Amino acid sequence: MIAIEDVSKRYADGTVAVDRLSLQIPNHSITVLVGPSGCGKTTTLRMINRMVEPSGGTIRVDGEDIRSRPVNALRRSMGYVIQNAGLFQHRTILDNIATVPRLLGWSKQRARERAAELMERVGLDPAMARRYPYQLSGGQQQRVGVARALAADPPILLMDEPFSAVDPVVRRGLQEELLRIQGELGKAIVFVTHDMDEAITIGDRIAVLRTGGKLAQFATPDEILSSPADPFVEQFLGADRGIRGLSFLSTRDLELDRSRVFPVGSDWREIAGRDPEGTPVLVTDADGKPLGWADPGAWDGDLADLEPYGPSFEVGRDSLRVALDRAVLSPTGLAVAVDASGQVLGVAGQETVAAAIRVARQRRAADTPQETASASAKAGR
Amino acid sequence: MNVLDFMQSFFSDGSQWHGYDGIPQRVWEHVQYTAGALAIAAAIGLPIGLVTGHTGRGGNTLAFLATGARALPTFGLLVLMFVWLGLGIVPVMIPLVVLAIPPVLITTYEAIRTVDPAPVDAARGMGMPEAQVLFQVEVPAALPLILSGLRSATIQIVSTATIAAYVSLGGVGRYILDGLYQHNYEKVAGGAALTALLALLVLVLFWAVGKVAVSPGVRTRRAA
User: Fold this and answer.
1) Which terminus has fewer CB within 10 Å in chain B: N or C?
2) pTM for the model
3) What CATH number corresponds to the domain at position A262?
4) Which fold has domain B39-213?
5) Which band of pLDDT confidence, cut at 50, 70 and 90, is reported for residue A136?
6) Using CB atoms and an 8 Å cut-off, which of residues 129-148 of chain B contact chain A?
7) Contact A66, A50 (CB under 8 A)
8) Residue A140 and residue A163: Cα distance in Å, rounded?
9) Pick from A192, A210, A238: which residue ends a domain?
């Protein structure tokens, strides 16, 4: 647990970077500091490993004032990841990762063995061990940066805009990787970003800071999206916070329509006869996997004439946001719901999703918000 | 006769290759002056350049002093030192060292100062002591530039060490000076050729040192 208690940073020229900030950063979770430039988020992060000394207030790690330890010992107990990775260009990937173990006095061989383990953990090809940073892509370099920070297995990881300099596709990959690693390691991660989407994607808790280094709101992503503390936070969230908030609602209890799903070989004339309006039905193969949409009255049974069903969503894993998105994209307005093996469980229209949203909101109002922001809903975005 | 003919007759004269005025002896003297002046200039210029580059303090003062030192006429300084100190190696070494310090010092300062700040920040943030930040992060990245400063200083010393002959010392400058005095242009051309050859040797030497000392991961930057 990192306790930031009434911490300020004022510079000699009178600029206030951080203004009497108090935050409790719990273990085994990702706390994101987010805000516009000049809000003091990076300064706050750098005060935790004493790269910046506060002008007032105290920071404690597990109850102990961080000033009570030698500064380099403190820093070696915290992983540090920065934008563009900041790799040592003259050292191989393996030796970059081995840096902190070497500083801690490990033998070269043991440090390298540890580094090789870390390469695997962050998803780097072992063949890269002997390469130099310039031979890697930006995304790969950032993976090395994360591996280097984790090498000595520190309980705390400080990440300063680590994924800001890579393209959106690579960034998403890195974010998923970080969540996966965090699922395995359970560090206390402090993550700085200016990107609210990134904060919502990876944060267990988000501290929104405003210009001048004041805390605007400190809450779970779900809470921030559903009830922003003030107009500043609301504006910072952007226009579609309602839709984004659906990311935290599970599809588990969605009422699926099974009456419109039929396997190949069904009696199409009979089905068409049941419904004179000719609403489309979803045709599945013998295993229950979706094949496409058909109008039962007009279809001659040729699979090539089926209308593509588009992307589907997985019940329980994907969120209501994904279900709504699939319904909007579907040619029939109906989203195809599948289970983990890809078998069709039913279909859901936009109305059904809307009803599920209402139910979830009502249930939410009765519950505590932290419990509904489940990790399973989070992974499905 | 042209210069090449002068050189040929100089180098083909067997008597030039023996004795206290022989080519091996004069070249050896020249190498000693050069190595001595370079060692002293590096011993002064490198530490100051490294520390000022690392801390970022004193850069303007340095640039001012170095420009001043560059403006000093080397030959004038030699004569002055000779008048003050008399004959010997010291009055020759002082102007050579003064000549060599600015390129070593300024290039080293600039090389360290312009190292990418991200790895330096990362190194500090990981708890690396300052001395290691300098020698294990900044110097390896700055090494190609630092070596280029040393190289240009060495080239300047090699060509300027010919003036040692003016105060009755040796080196290949002996041939140039004696040749001019004796109107023996074969000697002059030979001395000049030896100087150029030594300068080439310096280039080769520094290329080899760079190959060995600079990590293959370091991308060379444009010289400052």
Assistant:
1) N
2) 0.81
3) 3.10.580.10
4) MetI-like fold (1.10.3720)
5) very high
6) 129, 132, 136-137, 140-141
7) yes
8) 11
9) A238
